[in-house]
């Protein structure tokens, strides 16, 4: 297998190129009322995507409208509001999930304690054609003292799994139970995943296929082993694949510090993990794996080691001046993308807060690692960006939005480059790793103390057509929902 390497100065991708002015046209724009969620989940939001395209000419949008209410609205491409439906909250109820299928949008809420020591998940189904909201359906109950119950949904919105964790006295997962529903919130089956044969499970990722298949990815053996299981509707037997990715290597004890799993449109599960040296806490390596349950086979990518040379390359690309980091820190796996030619692109992002209650948040460089269809190393690169947001915004306005069109990966960010605050577009050729210079969309986004962009509402209707909540400095005194056509 080919060795994973830094291509000899992939300058188009690695350097911070000069800013290019792109042309765009605002096709439509309407006033938008925004109330922040103020979620305690600052690094991994429970509902990071609040705008979902439906059909070929419309989208639905979830926003907080009051302290005790959310609204779901449907718009067409001309930004004509077709209907509005309200989801009322009670007590300590919060939003847990948002999904849209062919016939309905579903909002899942979580009630922390109903007064009887129980937590509950409710599903609120809204007809996409009429906007009519059905009565909330109780999806699952669990003791309030247990780990938070949650949901997983299929990509097409036709399957929804509500599930809870069962743990031992050490808070390690012993099994998972739940219920699988269709797009009408009709129960299809109760589920039970007995995991007691896997020792010391501290983390579990759950995903659902369009056919109702359930995929459970586990980090166990004190964050050293990766196990994936597939459960098929109607069968109690699981297909299991497992591999030790931590342990002792070259005299160094290594453990998993971060993981990301993605069920791809072709039904194949991919996973990536970052490991660290136990003694020093330094990043050690990236490992990626393809779980082919149909063939009953795991395909491994060669380990990429985070060497001092890699850190030196990253520091060379940072042109801001000042002291450079002496180690890799605060890098999180964010996206796994599969191209039509079966290339896997793993994206990791550096994001952190400066510390303290009112400290700002930062989202900096992107690390990209790409593998071919056989999981052989193709290319890897680093894209430099520097984003900052106040504490009350956290990552709602910074980080990035991505869209894959064929073999081109589009990345949209809010940045200030060369004194110009704007949305910027980068395009990456996933075959070669070459990237365009960041192109300013030319909205002239407001650059003051007030919120000017909410990334969570950005949606790609096509590679040239996006919907965003933004405040252009020369056009509006408040946030606006805009449809922007890129040229």
Word description of this protein:
With 487 residues, this protein is mostly beta strands. Helix content is 3%, strand content 53%. It is built from 2 helices and 36 strands. The protein has helices at 11-14, 308-317; strands at 20-21, 24-31, 51-54, 58-66, 69-76, 81-88, 93-100, 104-111, 118-127, 137-143, 150-153, 159-167, 173-182, 187-194, 203-208, 214-220, 225-231, 238-244, 247-249, 252-263, 269-277, 283-292, 297-300, 304-305, 331-338, 344-353, 361-371, 377-383, 387-389, 401-405, 408-417, 420-429, 439-440, 453-462, 465-470, 480-486. Strands 19, 20, 21, 22, 23 and 24 form a 6-stranded antiparallel beta sheet that branches. Strands 1-33-32-31-30 form a 5-stranded mixed beta sheet, with no helix packed on it. Strands 25, 26, 27, 28 and 29 form a 5-stranded antiparallel beta sheet that branches. Strand 12 (159-167) and strand 13 form a beta hairpin. The longest helix is centred in the middle third of the chain and has 10 residues, at 308-317. The protein is globular. The model is unreliable at 1-21 (pLDDT under 50).
């Amino acid at each position: 297998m080919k060795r994973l390497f830094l291509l000899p100065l992939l300058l188009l991708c690695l350097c911070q190129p000069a800013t290019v002015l792109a042309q765009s046209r605002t096709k439509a724009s309407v006033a938008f009322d925004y109330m922040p969620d103020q979620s305690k989940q600052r690094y991994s939001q429970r509902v990071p995507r609040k705008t979902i395209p439906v059909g070929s000419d419309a989208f639905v949008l979830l926003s907080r409208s009051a302290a005790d209410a959310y609204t779901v609205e449907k718009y067409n491409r001309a930004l004509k509001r077709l209907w509005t439906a309200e989801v009322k909250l009670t007590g300590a109820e919060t939003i847990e999930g948002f999904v849209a299928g062919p016939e309905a949008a579903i909002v899942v809420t979580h009630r922390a304690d109903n007064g009887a020591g129980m937590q509950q998940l409710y599903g609120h189904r809204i007809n996409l054609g009429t906007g009519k909201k059905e009565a909330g359906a109780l999806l699952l109950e669990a003791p309030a003292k247990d780990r938070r119950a949650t949901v997983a949904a299929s990509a097409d919105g036709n399957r929804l799994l509500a599930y809870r964790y069962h743990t031992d006295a050490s808070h390690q997962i012993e099994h998972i139970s739940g219920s699988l529903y269709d797009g009408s919130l009709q129960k299809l089956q109760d589920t039970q995943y007995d995991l007691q044969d896997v020792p010391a499970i501290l983390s579990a990722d759950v995903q659902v296929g369009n056919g109702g298949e359930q995929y459970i990815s586990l980090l166990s053996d004190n964050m050293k082993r990766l196990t994936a299981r597939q459960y098929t509707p109607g069968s109690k037997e699981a297909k299991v694949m497992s591999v030790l990715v931590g342990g002792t290597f070259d005299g160094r004890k290594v453990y998993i510090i971060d993981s990301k799993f993605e069920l791809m449109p072709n039904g194949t599960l991919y996973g990536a993990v970052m490991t660290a040296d136990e003694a020093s806490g330094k990043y050690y390596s990236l490992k990626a794996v393809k779980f082919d349950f149909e063939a009953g086979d795991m395909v491994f990518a060669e380990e990429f080691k985070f060497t001092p040379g890699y850190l030196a390359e990253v520091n060379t690309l940072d042109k801001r001046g000042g002291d450079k980091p002496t180690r890799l820190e605060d890098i999180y796996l964010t996206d796994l993308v599969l191209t039509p030619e079966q290339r896997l692109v793993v994206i990791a992002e550096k994001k952190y807060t400066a510390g303290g209650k009112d400290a700002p948040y930062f989202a900096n460089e992107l690390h990209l690692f790409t593998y071919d269809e056989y999981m052989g190393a193709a290319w890897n690169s680093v894209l430099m960006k520097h984003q900052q947001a106040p504490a009350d915004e956290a990552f709602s306005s910074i980080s990035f939005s991505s869209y894959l069109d064929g073999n081109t990966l589009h990345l949209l960010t809010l940045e200030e480059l060369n004194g110009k605050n704007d949305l910027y577009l980068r395009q990456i050729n996933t075959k070669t790793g070459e990237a365009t210079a960041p192109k300013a969309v030319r909205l002239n986004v407001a650059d003051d103390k007030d919120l000017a962009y909410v990334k969570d509402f950005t949606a790609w209707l096509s590679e040239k057509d996006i919907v965003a909540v933004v405040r252009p400095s020369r056009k509006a005194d408040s946030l606006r929902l805009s449809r922007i056509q890129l040229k």
